[in-house]
Request: fold
Amino acid sequence: MAIARKKKVNNKAGYVIKPVAVKDVIKQADFGTFVLTIAKDCACYTNYLGYSVVTKPYTTTPEGKATELSLYAWMAYAVDNKEYLEAHKDEIHPELGIKNSEWLENIKIITEANLTKPCVVFTDATYATEEATRHMDWLRKKSDELMKAMNTTPPEEDEKANAEAFGEAIDTENFLNVMQQEG
Reply:
């Protein structure tokens, strides 16, 4: 579609990210300084400045489920647990040994710290440089670990287990394809 036609202007022609329609919203949680929204195909973070992050679920399992280490899964966890943690704020969290209210505050801090960093990092050149250096050091370390792992020959029993796991993954993928074709 053209940006402008006779008496019609497409003001959204430059949008790169499609906004989430209200009908697609599954659940939403307001944390005061930011809102997390879980929609049909994404999770969104929006702070009071209007800074937004939209993420899709990472497909890491044959079932297409995100793992606990993905940004999408963290945001879904925060939204799913906020209501319960507020309702039971004085109870001790069974796995953490702290009050649910404290855990909710930690969830808020962790979420804000990780998602607002791109917004905050460029407010101070020194801070931005420190963060970039820290990130580059982390990448170097992870690259070294990857190279070491790639150059290490696995024991024979691991090769057999890996072959079995690979076979199971292929079988699962074939099964899911057949099920999808059959409707």
